[in-house]
């Protein structure tokens, strides 16, 4: 595959996965409502697994863009905005550990209804993830244009 085509394919996959991740956070927020019960908890479990899978693919494709992208890896590794984007992405990963552990525990315990206080805590985490995702996009667009290089 020629370099330009590879760069294009990786960029398309990267955007696709990034939008998918945003959509999955939105679906999680729509499911995590007061009165969250068994059926939505099962849906939430599946959505959360998909979320983990998409995040992993995003990392792989992202690394692919660093290694095989047209600018070359040297462009990114000495570039603070790239590392700011990585830090914001890691923050999303860390914020998602709590929700995943809770969802698994609630499903294992066979809870009929999740207590409202827990639901509201989970929504807080998900909103924080969405806020960091917005930050990732700001850094991504800045990084693509060499802002602060
Ligand atoms: C939530 C996770 C991520 C989101 C939402 C995201 C989003 C984006 C977006 C929208 C762009 C295009 C920017 C533009 O052309 O204006 C981009 C570019 C890029 N991203 Fe990501 N990204 C994420 C994670 C990653 C990761 C984990 C890596 C690397 C390990 C990575 C590496 C790159 C690279 C190398 C580019 C190309 C920038 C350029 O054109 O110079 N991304 N990202």
What is the chain-wise order of helices and strands?
HHHHH
DSSP E strands, number: 0
Globular, elongated, flat, extended or rod-shaped: what is the shape? elongated
Largest sheet: none
pLDDT averaged over residues: 97
List bound small molecules.
Answer: protoporphyrin IX containing FE
The helix tally amounts to: 5
| Multimerization state | single chain
Radius of gyration, in Å, reads 18 Å
Strand content: under 5%
Uncertain residue ranges: none
Judged by helices, strands and strand pairing, the structural class is mainly alpha
- N-to-C CA distance: 29 Å
Counted up, domains total 1
Helix content: over 70%
Task: For the structure shown, list the relevant keywords.
binds protoporphyrin IX containing FE; elongated; mainly alpha; 149 residues; single chain; 5 helices
What does this structure look like?
- Helix 1 (3-31) packs antiparallel against helix 5.
- With 149 residues, this protein is mostly helical.
- The chain has one domain (3-144).
- The protein starts with a helix and ends in a 5-residue tail after the last helix.
- It has helices at residues 3-31, 38-68, 73-77, 80-109, 116-144.
- It is built from 5 helices and no strands.
- The chain binds protoporphyrin IX containing FE.
- Protoporphyrin IX containing FE (HEM) binds next to helix 1, helix 2 and helix 5.
């Amino acid at each position: 595959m020629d370099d330009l085509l590879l760069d294009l394919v990786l960029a398309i996959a990267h955007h696709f996965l990034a939008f998918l991740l945003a959509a999955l956070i939105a679906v999680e927020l729509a499911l995590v409502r007061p009165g969250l019960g068994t059926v939505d908890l099962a849906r939430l479990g599946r959505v959360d697994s998909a979320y983990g899978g998409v995040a992993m693919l995003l990392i792989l494709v992202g690394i692919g863009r660093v290694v095989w992208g047209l600018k070359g890896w040297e462009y990114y590794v000495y570039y603070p905005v790239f590392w700011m984007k990585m830090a914001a992405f890691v923050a999303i990963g860390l914020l998602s550990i709590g929700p995943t552990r809770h969802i698994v525990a609630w499903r294992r315990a066979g809870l009929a209804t999740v207590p409202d206080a827990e639901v509201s805590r989970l929504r807080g985490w998900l909103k924080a993830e969405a806020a960091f995702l917005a930050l990732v996009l700001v850094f991504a667009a800045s990084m693509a244009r060499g802002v602060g290089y």
